[in-house]
Amino acid sequence: MRLTVLGCYAATPRTLTNPTAQILEINNHIVLIDCGEGTQVELRRHKVKFSRINHIFISHLHGDHFFGLPGFISTMRLLGREKALHIHGPKGIKEAIILLLKLGDSWTNYPLLFHELSSKESELIFEDNKITVTTIPLDHRIYTNGYLFREKVGKRKLNIEAAEDYGIDKAYFNNIKNGKSITLDNGEVISNSKLTFDPPKPKSYAFCSDTVFDETLASRIKDVDVLYHESTFLESEADLATKTKHSTAQQAAKIAKEANVKTLVLGHYSTRYKSIALFKEEAALIFPNVLLADDGKTFDF
Amino acid sequence: MRLTVLGCYAATPRTLTNPTAQILEINNHIVLIDCGEGTQVELRRHKVKFSRINHIFISHLHGDHFFGLPGFISTMRLLGREKALHIHGPKGIKEAIILLLKLGDSWTNYPLLFHELSSKESELIFEDNKITVTTIPLDHRIYTNGYLFREKVGKRKLNIEAAEDYGIDKAYFNNIKNGKSITLDNGEVISNSKLTFDPPKPKSYAFCSDTVFDETLASRIKDVDVLYHESTFLESEADLATKTKHSTAQQAAKIAKEANVKTLVLGHYSTRYKSIALFKEEAALIFPNVLLADDGKTFDF
């Protein structure tokens, strides 16, 4: 599982920092999470092939999380995309995009499929044989969802050495991979677990931005491997965080601890701070395994 | 008169090139012409004070000319703008911006005033004591206007030396600046032209992008000082230019010649070409005084 942070600063694009956008590679899917202005340029900079992105998940309709989407959609048309593109986001996103395409008489040549969200309960919104995606309702100034991405348990891996020791013919290997046990010529049954290795433990990633500090969040992201939790402010601006429905680094750490996640990634920093190192220091007092997102940074989990 | 090119490439933002946006400084006005994605970052890069921009002129509603506008408007709110901001552009622009602000519940704290255009005839759309702005209807795939900016003739400048030679008291200097002649104590009338210098010749700038080659354009921009004319293609792609309602460098030069402009500035280059130098070579065969726009370039006229 690999996370590439295209942008992780709050509010406005600046010369050296970008608003929110992330690429998550998970079990052979490549999804785009949020799409602030300039995202398509950051994708080019990081050599992400636009055509590999089939699903985009938008948390909420503040500009710093979706003003790059109309341009991204238009560019895919100019690049000759033919595959469908799925847009998951709050109700209203379809009306906005359709209006912009209509005004420019720039309809896409590829199917543009909207999956609009309006529920305040967590929903399973995508599932295939590799991953599931569920919403994480968040409490922000406008309707907002985080997203929880979970790998499905993969197939068990064939232990070739063990199979050969039992003298099992290659013709049976596919059966073994599919979980079957094998009966030898002498009648002995070799259980599948003796012929296979456990599959890799499925990974999970929770994206939670933007949100006020909300302790009930922890129960919804229990034991995830990686939590990206916004930390717009430091604790010295806790009042401002509450007022604007954002969180502090310390609050993000409390959620991470309570949810028993493995790794906390902080981001969505207010640009008022000269250095982001303080965010890590503050969070680490409460939750030790904390990483700082930064524009252009890639994390392998 | 100073032109700063923030972006002048066609179609999509890329790592090293930006879509259309320009800052024109003319007679103490600073206006923004078009606003492709990323414009606000380019403004920061060139240290243009956002607050000095009171008028934005949008040529048409293709994304590469206006997808940066919603973010620019939002950022002005975050920066605490209070002054009114005037948006001039095709009908529909208001609906689009208002919808985006509504979805984000991000109404501006400053007055946002839309001046929507739908006429196919040239119109005077702005006038004060310094400049006039008229539309230049263009023929593109969707409703499009160029804009013609003209300085007004300034006041004559006081010739202090001449006034002192005639023994005229300082108390009369304002009258002289305002065009009055002076009667000396001996009854001699000194005409204003003897006491003043001619004001600087007013300058003019015509922005014409995007447009197909249209010879009737020349009559509408006759004798302007500076013509920015799109040249998406070279003559080798003339068919493609006609089909997509764009122009070639040679066609832009023909318009410049026919209109008798002083200087032609080329831009809106397709990104298919490795170097933009060929655009200048091609145009210069027909019209010698040609300049190449490029991102970040500033021209003083």
UniProtKB/TrEMBL annotation, chains A, B:
Domain of life: Bacteria
Catalytic reactions on record: Endonucleolytic cleavage of RNA, removing extra 3' nucleotides from tRNA precursor, generating 3' termini of tRNAs. A 3'-hydroxy group is left at the tRNA terminus and a 5'-phosphoryl group is left at the trailer molecule
CDD domains: RNaseZ_ZiPD-like_MBL-fold (cd07717)
Cofactor note (record): Binds 2 Zn(2+) ions.
Pfam families for this protein: Anti-Pycsar_Apyc1
UniProt keyword list: Endonuclease, Hydrolase, Metal-binding, Nuclease, tRNA processing, Zinc
Any one Gene Ontology molecular-function term assigned to this protein's record: 3'-tRNA processing endoribonuclease activity
Transmembrane portions of the chain: none
Catalytic residues identified in the record: D64
List of residues binding Zn(2+) 2: D64, H65, D210, H268
Residue sites binding Zn(2+) 1 per the record: H60, H62, H140, D210
Enzyme Commission (EC) number: 3.1.26.11
Listed cofactors: Zn(2+)
Broadest EC class assigned to this enzyme: hydrolase
PANTHER family: ZINC PHOSPHODIESTERASE ELAC PROTEIN 1 (PTHR46018)
Family the UniProt entry places it in: Belongs to the RNase Z family.
HAMAP family linked: RNase_Z_BN
Function per UniProt: Zinc phosphodiesterase, which displays some tRNA 3'-processing endonuclease activity. Probably involved in tRNA maturation, by removing a 3'-trailer from precursor tRNA.
Assembly information from the UniProt record: Homodimer.
Protein name from the UniProt record: Ribonuclease Z
Organism listed in the record: Maribacter hydrothermalis
